[in-house]
Amino acid sequence: MAKTNPTQSVKPEERELARKKLEQERLEAELAECELRLASLRGELGAIEQRYLKFVGQPYSELDELRAQIAERMAAEDPSNERLQRAAREARARANESRSATSVKDKEEPKHFSPSPEIKRLYREVAKRIHPDLTADDADRARRQELMAEANKAYQRSDEKGLGKILEKYESSPEAVQGDGAGAELIRVIRKLSQMKTRLGEIEIEVQKLSNSDLYLLKLQNDEAQAQGRDLLAEMAEKVRKRISDSKARLEEFSTVRVS
Asked: What is the pTM of this model?
């Protein structure tokens, strides 16, 4: 009696499903790593922006206000000079913009963004399990989007417990249960692969955009200064304070001339 070849009983869709699942596993890891990279970059840029606004932005706001007052004094001395009037208006607009930009962060203490290896590990795990692009079901996708938004906030706060609770919350939800059948599962996997590839492209575009920003250039300069034992933001703030001192002296000159 002839022996049956075990491979002959495996259906084509089952073989394809096995192959796609290996690709899915690889892409899930890649996507989690890319999401971590993006979240880390956002966190680093957010931290440097907060420190810049606190230590350099606020002095710049004061400097812009002094410059606006000087421009307005000059305009008041010569009301018929349209160039001075326009310069005064522009200086006042810059001062208002600077004050508005720094006032949002006034009450916040600047923090360094330095996620621990455990936080990074947890974030990767969350991204692998609940990323919105890992499902084709609209209701499940919406739920995952909410949880990923929570995960991103927890990661920015280095909230290890928060990340753990988010993962536990999803693992115990009905949406985490998958259906049966090789054919249906193959379709779901193919759609997941397509969604993950799309998301990877989106991440690449956003990372590139952030990497081309002025804020990223400031981060690179600050990193280089730190490697040399320097505090770039402190140096920048010192230069602004010198300009503030010069502007105050000039403003005093206007008052002295008017009194005389």
From this structure: 0.70
